[in-house]
């Protein structure tokens, strides 16, 4: 085998592995806090990627309107849920988060679109547009059934995935988009050329992983989130607002999804339905990491990326078969290593 | 109205539908699709809703069924009626292979594992040459009965709905049986079921295969209905849709599968035909609306629509009292090689660095009530778990009737005649008291799954239920026999657990805090019951914190503290033991 091809495949695999790692981390995060298996994580990727590409093309992305619409519904949910115990402070907070925030973002997007913005402006604007969608999504779809079984939450996730994917088609059309690279710089070491884009992917992935690790391991808020995951009732008794924890987890997941989307849209064309399969591979990594461990998830994601790169080179027809079959031995090992803990309730 | 009569009415209505004058043929096609989906969803009800194993791969089993008949009828000229059993066998064998891996997966790994092979199989269908890759296989012959060709949707309708109704009947029969109770206990964890001899891994594999065979049947019908197959309907999206159907209909109910199939398929059809009119051809909005409606349905009815509908229907389906039946023969006794019923020699259990049970030795002889007491965290429940095989001892020797049970699984220990209750009640809350108690008699019945489906198990079943009713009467809960176990008070649930343990016809009864949550009168009744059991030849080992109760009833007491035995003897001896006083009251200086 040619060592240049080997190195090239390895590099390719690590780059996509880094993206899968990010998504895997977001899935672990959301599952740990809310017990939701977030199938729509892939939609955050598509929304992020296509919002960024649309902004770069000088147009206002439809996601701004989606954020606005979902904010209004979230506000209505807040008002209905809290109608018997409404205080002025709560009402104002809800109004600010659900109505004023997306209005401001919509205003900013409309004002800035059409100009020749720098990459940084579009990058940040995309995150600001998509992130609140995650927040409202939890409020509208999941919070009312937060106590339902994992199965019901999972099925709700699939419903939301369908709805968001359809909206993606409505906003961005059936044609795929590509966005500008975050950096045009490049670095050549021996036979390998590292583009600024791939270096950016590595840097941002490592930054986010370290950030999450610090957040959950060393801050009170991170520990509160973990407590919610272990025991919702117990967390509420000690004063943790579990609904806010859920919203925060979704917000983070949306941010991570958006960043992943922005990072890959310069490399491959993103269609409205591309996110699903990318998210699923992040999922594979998250599962190998046992839905609990961040470093393991990151390593597993790299392995998935590398396996995918090699199998698409040698047996491209069976690429997906290989990637997903890879999962089974890991699942068996995982199950053997940690025998089932009896759940006291469903 | 009994369920059986309701079913006959349903069958008659379905049979009459195609003969309604002016019935649009398109509606018949819709009903065909509903029936096909209901078959798969019915398997999922058993697998996911009842058994607690979520599968994202059911459509792949439809694929096995459909492709088997497609290949054999087109390439080799087999008759569809010969490929029917072959399709079911292929789906079943695939389920055995995948199931052997999958049912070993625990917790959330299981659904994820099914996603993994579900996707892999889909890609395999679309890449393999002999099943026609993405184009699939066309020109599959129609089903025929003699000269009658079931070519049009109105004719195959009968084949599909006969299959649905027969399968619903078989599934309902299966659930209402010895095997069915074992399956229904799976969702609540395996420890309690295994303590009564249920082979949980085998029960899981059984439902897995059953669900796959139903999916295979649906696939076989689909192939002869469409007369062509391609990979699309066997992918992940289809699998997910089957799960939708089961969950929306009510994942715990067989009829939920049929209702769910109706709701989801009609909903999709309405959206596909009317939304473009409203939104002027924006076809993609149909998935948006469908997704949103699904979430709304789940928010309205997280338990599914069937229970809501069933509440409106006139089902007076109260469980009938068990008929008097021949008394069950006593359990087959295993020859004792020791006069000690239970003999524990230096048993040890370590969790990492923590020694939960530290070289504890004691024994229980025939017709004796022994109490195991000690402060919280003394290792009493851990000792119980070592005896019943839930945990494996790190050292020492535990024998029952002289047989070493150190490495025996819980089922074997149950067979030796050891039955137990749990500190944290482990009943199936949505099953009746009678059914819960009947799980205790699992090892005394013999009917298997197929006999249950065909109702050949009635004699066996009547014996089990009569035994359960007898034990319920013995503990004084006859009035609550048909209530759901979860609706009883905690104290009563503990008593139900005792009845369930008695159903095994045990030599040795292990009771973990049986008196907790009982009122004074109830405790006295429990004491009387335990004395009666002793006089009938049974031995009891109990963990209890109520000292009055223990001192009154126990022949001997073993005291543990921090995993170590600090005293044993008669109640009077233990009461006078300075170490025991120190353990309970602190140092007496």
Beta percentage of chain B is: 5-15%
Distance between the termini of chain B: 73 Å
Oligomer: heterodimer
Task: Please give the radius of gyration of chain B in angstroms.
Answer: 28 Å
Q: What's the β-strand tally of chain A?
A: 2
The percent of residues in helical segments of chain A reads over 70%
- Return the CATH topology of the largest domain in chain B: ABC transporter involved in vitamin B12 uptake, BtuC
Largest β-sheet summary of chain A: 2 strands, antiparallel
If classified by CATH, what would the architecture of the largest domain in chain B be?
A: Orthogonal Bundle
Kindly give the count of domains of chain B: 3
Can you count the helices of chain A? 14
SS content category of chain A: mainly alpha
Uncertain spans of chain A, ≥5 residues at pLDDT below 50?
340-346
Order of helices and strands of chain A: HHHHHHEEHHHHHHHH
Average pLDDT of chain A, rounded to a whole number, is 83
Side-by-side strand order of the widest sheet of chain A: 1-2
What does this structure look like?
- The complex is a heterodimer of chains A (346) and B (589).
- By secondary structure, chain A is an all-alpha fold.
- Chain A has a domain at 25-185 and 192-203 and 220-283.
- Helix content of chain A is 74%, strand content 2%.
- Chain A has 14 helices and two strands, in the order H-H-H-H-H-H-E-E-H-H-H-H-H-H-H-H.
- A two-stranded antiparallel sheet of chain A has the order 1-2.
- Mean pLDDT of chain A is 83; it is low at 340-346.
- Chain B has three domains: 3-312, ABC transporter involved in vitamin B12 uptake, BtuC (Orthogonal Bundle), CATH 1.10.3470; 340-417 and 506-589, Rossmann fold (3-Layer(aba) Sandwich), CATH 3.40.50; 423-500, no CATH class.
- Chain B is built from 23 helices and 14 strands.
- Chain B has helices at 3-16, 25-50, 58-75, 80-102, 109-127, 153-175, 178-186, 191-195, 200-226, 236-249, 254-278, 285-300, 305-312, 380-387, 410-416, 433-439, 449-453, 458-474, 490-502, 520-535, 547-553, 571-576, 578-585, and strands at 137-138, 143-145, 148-150, 228-229, 340-351, 354-365, 369-373, 395-400, 403-404, 418-420, 508-512, 539-543, 556-561, 564-569.
- The interface between A and B is large, with 51 and 49 residues.
